[in-house]
Design goal:
The complex is a heterotrimer.
Chain A (H helix, E strand, L loop, with lengths): L1 H27 L10 H34 L16 H28 L13 E8 L2 E6 L4 E4 L1 E5 L3 E8 L4 E4 L7 E3 L5 E6 L4 E7 L12 E6 L1 H12 L4 E2 L1 H7 L9 E3 L1 E2 L3 H7 L19
Parallel strand pairs in A: 1-5, 4-10, 11-13
Antiparallel strand pairs in A: 1-2, 2-3, 3-12, 5-8, 6-7, 6-9, 9-10
Helix pairs in contact in A: 2-3
Chain B lengths: L1 H7 L12 H23 L3 H9 L4 H32 L10 H35 L8 H23 L24 H29 L12 H32 L13 H34 L7 H14 L15 H13 L1 H15 L8 H23 L2 H7 L3 H31 L5 H27 L16 H30 L41 H8 L10 E4 L4 H17 L3 H19 L5 E4 L1 H19 L3
Antiparallel strand pairs in B: 1-2
Chain C lengths: L3 H44 L9 H4 L2 H26 L3 H31 L8 H34 L3 H33 L3
Helix pairs in contact in C: 1-5, 1-6, 3-4, 3-6, 4-5, 5-6
Chain lengths: ~300, ~675, ~200
């Protein structure tokens, strides 16, 4: 008995030590999903916490019963023994009903939140929405601001407290656009358009990455979402307008060549309808553009 | 002339052999390992014995052992892949790009997943079903013994093809499910994806045939008196799982074939452009993929039902409930597949529906856990290692299950999809659920198949290193997921603060490795000490079901006379009532050995190899070979032989004499 | 010791159980084949509109021709039934005759289909042209591949019947073959409706 008590105590001490180290470590680093910087991510986090707490209603009894039963009914302990106890209608009803109850609550949460936080749904705000067209490339992100006629690579500037409507496509394979501190992700696919509505509620530089394997350079697809006051954002647009690079068919073809870990760069003007052209070429054959069929080798 | 010869070789060339140190090391490992095994067999002059007793056998117990050997070897291969991945991710930070280049890392990651699911998990599952199912339902064999052997050899051919990719060519770098357009020719021009397609296609056909086989076995070959509701729970779980195989595997066959068509003859099913639809692939592959995980876990659940009841020395709690739970899971597993891609943009209606269905499937699973716990209640529990594996399962499966319920909410999934949170979830389900279950099964049924017990203490050490290592390796991944770490990254920046967690996870893998070491040691020591560990009674655990009523090791004919069943847990009932069954002998009809299954699989391997390397003449020729072999098989008018009652009696007496010799060792 | 008739009775019962088990197993296999075709139909349903600038079903399907194919195949199912009736009567010559007719009709179907494929391919409308054509060729082609294997099986069965007569094993296998052949007929009806009929009216 004493030896077992020592083992249990020892285990608890170890677990406590691990928990403290973990806690200290995590305190020093950002955990984007749990430390959101935008209303969408914040609501997502709240749902995570709610559902996790709800799950303890099942987890705690399961672990408790496991340890308690293993202890009490171990061979050698003089506990009551009923070898033919094969069922109990009342008991079984209880543990059919409890999971059903919890899952019902989660289903309601699912139903409501899926509609409320639909990535395609515009975010209501007194500030006008910024539109950004996103093209996933090998292995970088192109951001086109159609209304401001500028573009950038691997960096997207947004004003604080302003809804941003990202329209996503890909000129390569299927990948996923994810800025965890601002909200969930959305796939970007060739010939398809998806949408992601996000908003930053505080200024800062937020990490973004590609969340679906798209080839050997995919680990180098990090991008930054720079959230800043409206004046700084305007300044950012102006400075982009003053670069000497323009995004036209030629420079786009150069950009689309495979490259990874690309540093941010900017374009002062964008070929009209470039985004649409990129998407459409996968949907019908277009003169003069590659129809991305089974020819060609990518290095 | 040389032009023609080169054309015959398709895409093969010297440059397709590995070119850098690590890949050469991998190739050398496989080749040298194979040569070593061949040399040992030759030295011990065991080829004839191997061919006669093992390769051409139709005895499902032997087929089961072969499945398990292949699966365990593949576990070591997949495990090495995991070690490489963990090492890369622990060191490849900032200016350090690790030990593997990105393409190689992606190949290893893809190989790891493919091998673990298709060759380890499926292999262990079919192996254990082969070993146990006929014995448990009081049958002598499965419904179609030749088909059974063919299924194993097709599985072997698929495994051989995957491992060939280490020696010549490369493997897919598109993940274990090869999503297009990445897996299309334009973005994956090498043979890697083709290796993936054809090894799975061949192994998949084997699986489908096994599904049909075991389904008919359970429905048609139970001992007289064993109604469905008197079957052991393991048999029910096999019935459920095999129903899923029958419905799900044809979808995989089609999907792989369509991708192969895209890559060989230029169709546009999933291409970017040309009228292809990559999202359709994602739907198809997961319409198979989700039932697949239930295919794997249901028999493991069945194993746990047997183990908890046996080691708690108590009737399984809630038998009827458990049966209902199995069938609800079977049905629902076809209604949830979209939860694997909530983030593909299907819209709220679709996402909400599938999210709710996914949450609902947690209900029958939760019910099962409670039923197992309450089997322990008022039992008299002995904590042999199978019981420890069960308890480890409850811990990991519950944590992983909670993560799963969280991810069933689309809004939550938007944040954790494809992140390490997801990776931690599915590893906890598959390792905690499937792998632990099959480890427990191996220990539990080992004496029945081999006639001696495994070393218990070493097994216990193995378990404790496994569970502590496993939790150490995967709990950090949940945190990493929340820190914004996606899966399959071969490098990341230092400022993200991820590295210490990867290092902790790496340490967990070391612990698991020690656990595996103990398992290997356990096997070696047990074989060494087998005489002291003989199972003389045939019932080492005080079991409940029919397989414990036959001697250990189980004779190749299983039962001298097929038992007549009147109760659930018939063997336990007999023991309690003190009823001793008289040994009776009758004529037994058994299938003859056949080497044709090996021939079919060898041809299948060649078909795959030919298709991969564009040696179409070879593929066509070998397809013709398969057809010819089948015709030859059909011409066999006498595939069975009769073992007369007299001969059975002689064999049985010989066995009893041997037992007396073993008693001397005790 | 059991009497001779008892032993014979057990023998017959075992044979019947074995046959039933095999037929049941074959049914299960046919159901998996059904799922296979269902997946191909699902693929067709999803991408049959992806003509990528090329022709749609309306442009390339010729219903009178397809009617000929259908007539051939459906009739062959009928003659296969006649062959099975003859097998029950153990009438070897009749079985061979009707199987021969079935084979010829099946072969006719296959040739008509291959001709249609060749025609489409030579005018530039091969499976490479678009997603629609890929799924058309694959769905119809898979059915044709099954027909081919059925014909091969049928030819081998005819040789067996000729050489070994209508033994129990042969009749059991004939049952399986006929199940297979009728199943392919049912699949063709779905193809005819969903691919050709719907396609011709622009659905």
């Amino acid at each position: 008995m004493k030896k077992n008590r020592k083992i249990v105590l020892g285990a608890l001490v170890v677990l406590l030590a691990i928990a403290s180290i973990a806690g200290w470590y995590l305190h020093r680093h950002t955990i984007p999903v749990l430390q959101p910087a935008g209303p969408i991510a914040e609501k997502e986090r709240n749902i995570i916490i709610f559902c996790a707490l709800l799950s303890t209603v099942v987890v705690v009894p399961v672990f408790t019963l496991l340890i308690y039963f293993a202890w009490k009914y171990r061979e050698g302990n003089n506990a009551p023994y009923s070898p033919d106890l094969g069922g109990n209608a009342a008991a079984e009803t209880v543990w059919w009903l409890i999971p059903i109850a919890i899952i019902s609550v989660i289903s309601v949460v699912t139903w409501r939140s899926t509609y409320a936080l639909d990535p395609f749904k515009p975010i209501s705000s007194p500030n006008p929405t910024i539109h950004v067209e996103v093209v996933a490339l090998d292995w970088k992100w192109l951001f086109i601001y159609p209304n401001q006629d500028v573009a950038s690579v691997n960096e997207v500037a947004v004003p604080v407290n302003t809804p941003v409507d990202f329209e996503l496509t890909s000129d390569t394979v299927m990948t996923s656009f994810w800025a965890p501190q601002l909200g969930g992700q959305m796939y970007a696919m060739p010939g398809m358009q998806t949408q992601l509505n996000l908003e930053a509620s505080k200024p800062g530089n937020f990490h973004g990455l590609a969340a679906n394997i798209s080839g050997s350079g995919f680990a180098g697809m990090d991008f930054t979402v720079k959230s800043m006051p409206k004046s700084s954002y305007n300044a950012w647009i102006v400075s982009a307008k003053h670069t000497d690079k323009q995004l036209n068919d030629g420079s786009y073809a150069l950009l689309a060549r495979p490259s990874s870990y690309v540093l941010p760069s900017y374009y002062s003007s964008v070929e009209p309808n470039l985004y649409d052209t990129i998407m459409l070429k996968y949907m019908t054959p277009i003169e003069g553009t590659s129809t991305a069929t089974t020819t060609g080798v990518r290095s | 002339m040389t032009q023609f010869a080169f054309a015959l070789l398709g895409r093969l060339s010297w440059s397709q052999f590995p070119q850098d140190a690590i890949t050469r090391g991998g190739a050398a490992g496989i080749v040298l390992g194979l040569l070593f095994v061949l040399a040992v067999i030759t030295y011990l002059r065991k080829w004839k014995w191997l061919w006669k007793e093992w390769f051409t056998t139709q005895d499902p117990k032997r087929i089961g052992v072969m499945y398990i050997i292949v699966a365990l070897v593949m576990l070591l291969r997949g495990g090495s892949d995991a070690v490489l991945m963990r090492t890369q991710q622990a060191v490849s930070v900032g200016n350090n790009y690790g030990i593997l280049n990105s393409n190689h890392f992606q190949q290893i990651a893809s190989a790891h997943g493919t091998i673990m699911i298709f060759f380890v998990a499926m292999g262990l599952m079919f192996g254990i079903i082969n070993l146990v199912l006929p014995l448990q339902i009081g049958a002598r064999d499965v419904a179609f013994p030749f088909l059974n052997a063919t299924s194993f050899w097709l599985f072997f051919a698929g495994m051989a093809l995957v491992n060939s990719s280490l020696v010549i060519g490369d493997f897919s770098a598109a993940g274990w499910l090869s999503y297009p357009p990445l897996s299309e020719l334009q973005y994956s021009p090498t043979v890697g994806v083709d290796y993936w397609i054809w090894s799975l296609q061949i192994a998949g056909v084997g699986s489908l045939l096994s599904g049909i086989n075991f389904l008919v076995t359970v429905l048609r070959m139970r001992a007289p008196g064993m109604s469905l509701m008197k079957m052991p729970m393991f048999a029910w779980s096999v019935l459920g799982s095999m129903s899923l195989v029958a419905f799900a595997f044809p979808i995989l066959t089609v999907t792989l074939a369509l991708l192969a068509l895209d890559r060989t003859i230029g169709t546009h099913f999933f291409t970017a452009g040309g009228g292809g639809n990559a999202m359709m692939y994602v739907n198809l592959i997961w319409a198979w993929g989700h039932p697949e995980v239930y295919i794997l876990v249901l028999p493991a659940f069945g194993v746990y039902s047997e183990i908890v009841a046996t080691y708690a020395r108590k009737k399984l709690f809630g038998y009827t409930s458990m049966v209902w739970a199995i069938w609800i899971i079977v049905l629902l597993s076809f209604t949830v597949w979209l939860h694997h891609f909530f983030t593909m943009g299907a819209g709220s209606n679709v996402n909400a529906f599938f999210g709710i269905m996914t949450a609902v499937i947690a209900i029958p699973t939760g019910v099962k856990i409670f039923n197992w716990l309450f089997t322990m209640h008022r039992g008299r529990i002995s904590f042999k290692s199978p019981m420890l594996w069960f308890m480890g399962f409850v811990v990991t499966f519950t944590i992983g299950g909670v993560a799963g319920v969280l991810m069933s909410v689309p809004i939550i999934d938007y944040q954790v999809h494809n992140s390490l949170f997801l990776v931690a979830h599915f590893h906890m389900m598959i390792v905690g659920g499937v792998l632990f279950g099959y480890f427990a099964a191996l220990t539990y049924w080992f004496p029945k198949i081999f006639g001696f017990r495994l070393h218990e203490k070493l097994g216990t050490y193995a378990f404790w290193f496994w569970i502590s290592g496993f939790l150490t390796a995967f709990i950090p991944l949940y945190i990493l997921g929340f820190m914004g770490a996606t899966r399959r990254l071969d490098h990341y920046s230092a400022s993200l603060g991820w590295q210490p967690l990867f290092i902790v996870a790496g340490f967990g893998v070391v612990l698991i490795g020690i656990g595996v070491g103990f398992q290997v040691l356990q096997l070696v020591v047990s074989i060494w000490q087998r005489n002291e560990r003989r199972d003389l009674s045939g019932d080492p655990w005080n079991g409940r079901t029919l397989e414990w009523s036959v001697p250990s090791p189980a004779p190749f004919y299983n039962f001298t006379k097929q038992p007549v069943v009147t109760d659930r847990d018939q063997f336990w009932v007999d023991k309690q009532s003190g009823k001793k069954r008289r040994t009776e002998y009758e004529d037994i009809v058994l299938p003859k050995n056949s080497g044709l299954s090996v021939a079919i699989a060898a041809c299948a391997f060649m078909v795959g190899f030919g298709m991969i390397w564009h040696m179409y003449w070879l593929a066509l020729l070998m397809l013709f070979g398969i057809i010819t072999t089948l015709v030859v098989r059909s011409m066999n008018e006498e595939p069975e032989y009769v073992l007369t009652a007299r001969e059975v009696e002689k064999l049985d007496h010989a066995r009893i004499r041997k037992l007396k010799e073993y008693e001397a060792y005790q | 010791m059991s009497t001779a008739t008892e032993a014979n009775g057990i023998e017959i019962r075992r044979e019947r159980e074995a046959t039933e088990k095999t037929v049941f197993g074959f049914w299960v296999y046919l159901m998996t084949d059904c799922v296979l075709f269902a997946s191909l139909f699902a693929v067709y349903a999803v991408i049959h509109g992806n003509t990528f600038g090329g022709p749609s079903g309306k442009d390339i399907f010729k219903l009178p021709y397809v009617l000929m194919e259908t007539f051939a195949l459906l009739t062959s199912s009928f003659t296969c039934g006649l062959a099975m009736l003859a097998a029950q009567r153990k009438a070897k010559r009749q079985v061979l005759f009707w199987l021969g007719v079935t084979f010829s009709l099946g072969l006719t179907f296959l040739c008509l289909e291959l001709n249609e494929f060749h025609h489409l391919t030579s005018e530039g409308n091969s499976w490479r042209r678009s997603g629609f054509l890929s799924s058309y060729f694959t769905l119809v082609g898979t059915h044709g591949l099954h027909i081919t294997f059925g014909l091969l099986w049928m030819a081998i069965m005819m040789i067996y019947i000729w050489k070994r007569g209508l033994t129990d094993t042969v009749r059991k296998r004939l049952t399986l073959l006929s199940l297979f052949w009728h199943f392919l007929d049912v699949i063709w009806i779905f193809i005819f409706t969903i691919v050709y009929l719907y396609g011709s009216i622009g659905l």
